[in-house]
Amino acid sequence: MRSYRPGMSTAPYDLTGRTALVTGAASGIGRATSVLLARAGAAVHCADRDANGLRETARLVSEAGGKATVHTLDVTDRAALRAAVAAAGPLDIAAAIAGIMHTSSVLDTADEDLDRVLDVNFKGVLRTCQEAVRAMIAAGRPGSVVTMASGAVDAAQPGLLCYSAAKAAVVQLTKTLATETGPHGIRVNAVAPGWIRTPMTGRHSAEELERTEAAMIRMSPLRRVGEPEDIAQAVLYLASDASSFMTGQILRPNGGVSMPW
């Protein structure tokens, strides 16, 4: 089993020779992760339903000296995910980042709203993990799976029932899968970001965005909000040998806004 030990390598973050699949790669955290993994040496397979965004991500990966293969797909489509995993060949890293946002009060949440968010934000992650892990086990390769949770699971927030419930399910998926894949040398960890400047948070009006970011900055000991690159760095750590003794963990890059025990 490949693993990092102090003194064995001067570059535990080096991903040269490894292959990664990143969903949600067309923008935001997924795009930043694709670029950073490529800079670390990985061959990156970028998946998203936004074809134009994927082309821009591939261009940025190329500018960074890396190579990106794009797969235009929706994570609600298992067959498409399976085909992308097969096309990637032996897979070492899977970063399940694709997600959507929905806002509604509990009393105003319709069944179809909850079903849609769960289908993408939880079941989409589950499908990605299943297809990636099956491929890793079949190839006899140790690997790293990184899921995307959220700081929303640590505190109740009005209007975020669908999103928070789906992300809480991702946390339980991460922990359970880690217990099942450890004997195969496959690690599974989650990143739970705080407020990050992405197209998803940019859905707010300019006035609401300014007000929300100001509140988050006041709450953070670091006095700032996050950027997609902050989360990409966390994904790189979990994908690399630097985190070889971590599995079933939730990494919280959130500027100190939340500090769970």
From TrEMBL:
Family of this protein: Belongs to the short-chain dehydrogenases/reductases (SDR) family.
Gene3D superfamilies for the chain: NAD(P)-binding Rossmann-like Domain
Transmembrane segments annotated in the record for this chain: none
PANTHER family: DEHYDROGENASES, SHORT CHAIN, ESTRADIOL 17-BETA-DEHYDROGENASE 8-RELATED
Protein name: 3-oxoacyl-ACP reductase
Pfam families: adh_short_C2
Keywords: Oxidoreductase
InterPro entries per the UniProt record, alphabetical: NAD(P)-bd_dom_sf, Sc_DH/Rdtase_CS, SDR_fam
Oxidoreductase as UniProt keyword: yes
High-level lineage: Bacteria, Bacillati, Actinomycetota, Actinomycetes, Kitasatosporales
